[in-house]
Amino acid sequence: MPVRKIEIPAGYLKADLHCHTYHSGMTGHMMAFKPMDSYSSPQKLYDLARQRGMDLVTITDHDSIDGCLAFLEKNPGAQDFFIGEEVTVQVPEFKKTVHVAVYDITEKQHREITYLKQNFDDTLAYLRANRILHALNHLFHCFPSSPKGRQFLEQMVGSFDLFEGLNGAIDKGHNSIMQRLPELFPGKGLIAGSDSHTLLRLGTCFTACKAANKAEYLDQLRAGNALIGGKYGHFHHMFNDAMGVYLNYFRDLVFVREVHIYWPLWKEVRNALGWIVCLPVFFSGALGGLFVRHWMERFRQNEYEKLIGEVSQ
Asked: pTM of the full predicted structure?
């Protein structure tokens, strides 16, 4: 498996800056059964991240800080934890959404961001005005078609100082393009995260900054002074996440009862049985769909490289 190997000098702190819990809401697949996007609990995510060598921990659930707040409620003195969120921001002129990671925010700021996220310009203006640490995740995910690609890329490069340069669910080719950004656009910085929706890949990608504590780490990250490393992704990582969510859905209904605790018994039985019946369909559909998507994105890699080069000139 391809790995971006880097030597972390003494005095650096590490964090996986992209990971999810069951507070990320429902997934966009098999909607009739109402499965969640992840079944990892905040506490288990924190414990495992620390076990795997992360000095600091955050949670970046989709459009929610509930997982962060749940963890802090049980661990109010945690000095190695900070609130994160992956915000789905609308870019109306392209009829597209982008995922913006924000870090070290308050509940009030979360509410304001939630109100503004329907408009890209308003959201970015608020983040800048309040000096909120933010980065653009997986730039090439659902990238616009060629006619609008350059205009979109120019807007994103002009809007962000930090970009996700290593995403553990994306292959080496796309990540390598992102890692050229600081060279092509001086002043841009990179972060890394596993983008893990199960606990399997948690901590396999990390962002390291020279710091003695959380405050110094965030200051260095905001300045773009970070090292990134870890394992590159492949389509089978996304498949593993999909199957992990599938199996954990059944496990939660039958054994754990941690997430879907408010469903009546008849609904749990119906959905568990239906989930088993649909397993072959989900397995083959997820495997085939992710494989096709993986090769389609590989096919577009030359297009992305060309666009990056043109915009940098």
From this structure: 0.95
